[in-house]
Amino acid sequence: MNTARFLTFVTKVQQFALQSRYFLISLVLLTIAPLSGWAQEGHSHTSTQQQQELAPEQKSRASALIRIVQESTERYKNVSVAEAEGYVLQFGCVSGPDSGAMGLHYINAALINRGELDPTHPQIVIYEPTSNGGLRLIGADFLVFADAWDKKKQGPPELMGQLLHYWESPNRFGLPAFYTLHVWAWKDNPNGAFVNWHPNVSCKQFGGQTR
Predict the structure, then answer these.
(1) CA 121, 193, 103 angle in degrees (round to 5)?
(2) What is the CB neighbour count within 10 angstroms for residue 202?
């Protein structure tokens, strides 16, 4: 091999080595990039875990709300006491065909018209009819009309960390649109203490109107 051909060969080898080096560097960078993404996802996961650490505080506030409702309504286990304080039966017994029932709503119109949310003064107390013709206190319901609340421009209504549920109009109760929060303080609800319907509540023992 003459000198010229030898130098040409060496040049091609160097170019190949250089290209191979760039290829390897690119390969390493491509490998590192996903790892960086995984690291960011891991950081995001840590943030989610930090948010989940608030759950005990939320549970504490929920338990506190249930306890306050129990303390504030215990005297209403005797329905005549509730009636003496302005609570009147409305809507008959509210039943859901697939979701259990809500029971009997005794409503205090003065508290509803006040338009305030106070855990010690529920607008509604809820009863379940019993087999002996009596009524069993099972919970309370906090209700404010949507128009009146929204005019205050103070955000979605909530009570001790629990957001109220919105019911649009028209509705089965014949009421204007409203926000409501059931608190099943006296009968455990397997679906949660603040859901609208109770699967273990029944209107079967009620002799009057059901809705």
Answers:
(1) 70
(2) 15
Closest CA to 189 of 95, 102, 104, 71: 102
Q: What is the distance between the alpha carbons of residues 103 and 98, in angstroms, rounded to a whole number?
A: 14
pLDDT in tens, the chain (211 residues): 544 443 444 344 445 444 444 444 343 333 333 333 323 322 323 333 434 445 888 899 999 999 999 999 999 999 999 999 999 999 999 998 677 999 999 999 999 999 999 999 999 999 999 999 999 999 999 999 999 999 999 999 999 999 999 999 999 999 999 999 999 999 999 999 999 999 999 999 998 877 7
Q: Who contacts 3 (Cβ-Cβ below 8 Å, separation ≥6)?
A: none
Residues 6+ apart with CB under 8 A from 163: 156, 157, 181
Give the C-alpha separation, 160 to 209, whole Å: 34
Dihedral angle sign, alpha carbons of residues 198, 199, 201, 203? positive
H helix or E strand, kind and range, residue 66 = helix 55-73
DSSP state, residue 173: T
Residue 124: partners with Cβ closer than 8 Å, 6 or more residues away? 87, 105, 106, 107, 108, 140, 141, 142, 143
Q: Which helix (H) or strand (E) is 126 found in, with range?
A: strand 124-129
